[in-house]
User: What shape does this take?
Amino acid sequence: MNTTPLAYQLSGHITAEAPLNVSYFGMDERLPRTPHGQVFLNGGTLRGPLRKAGLNMLIRELASLKDQPLDLVFNRAQMYMLGEGIDVSRDVNNEAMGRNYDPRAEAFLRQTNPFMSLFGRWKLAGYLEVGPLLTSTSNLITAGQGVRHDQFEHDPRLVTYLSADEQAALMDQMRSTQESMTAIEEVREQIRLIKADARKTDDVAARQAFAKQTRELEAQEKAIRKQREGSEESIKHPLPGYEAIAPGSQLQSRLKLIEGSPEILGLLLHCLAEFSHHPRLGGHLANGFGAISAEWQVMQRSPGERQAEAIGMVRLDDMGITLEGEPLEQAWQAFKVTLPSYDFTLFSRQEARQRWKQR
Assistant: This one.
């Protein structure tokens, strides 16, 4: 195994093959902007799906390697740690640090469990940096708008399949819904105005006051919905849509391995290959959103070198992944060769220290 740390960078672009929408907390269905006329998706929007694709890849490859059922490869706690970096066992997050920290144990942990080294966990930084996905604000559209209909209004013939009592109940429900929607729209208009005013100020106290008013109005809307007959959520209502990146837009993309090796690069390539089975980002997938394709040039920089050199290209879409360049093929194979030597259930520095000392 190559122990000389190498830096790798995948630079290129992601193309939106369908509208892209991501809901970020506190953004009111808007996408974040830069001061330079760009909109961006956080790096985690790509990093998260890559990590989960990598977990699926590991389960399949290890089950095949060990000739065991898929459901016996990892337990629940191990899957949470690998797939999300979350310690449901509470053992790893409570490990001692400070004077007990041993860099040799961390090095052994990273070498033995490269997946954890790549994506990280609490108090163990991942070596894979995924930059924000940037595109021009001119590529923004409003998508998903429309109207949801009540099926009995949309196709009145359905009413004939109801009994007389059920027809009467339906009419009462429709009257109640109409009355409540009038009141709800008045409340929602107040909320929209308050949120618009809140975006115009940077004053903390003012924003807190706006937030309090919004919460009170939202509670008022919820009370109105609870009081009406039938579904708490209105069946018939307009769908305002949400901000999205238009199909055909290209987003700048950068992935960097800050301390890598051909084997670790190979692991990343296998994660990308698994992701290509369903290359989707963001939400509203049921509405056909989220599909992407991608293309990156791969650069490698060795210690002491003044410039990085191009070693290949990676392209992926729904149809698969293409690797161009012999170093990439070698990295792909290097991970497969070293896969049996890894232990993807090693998570703590304490256990890594014990095992390192026993070598």
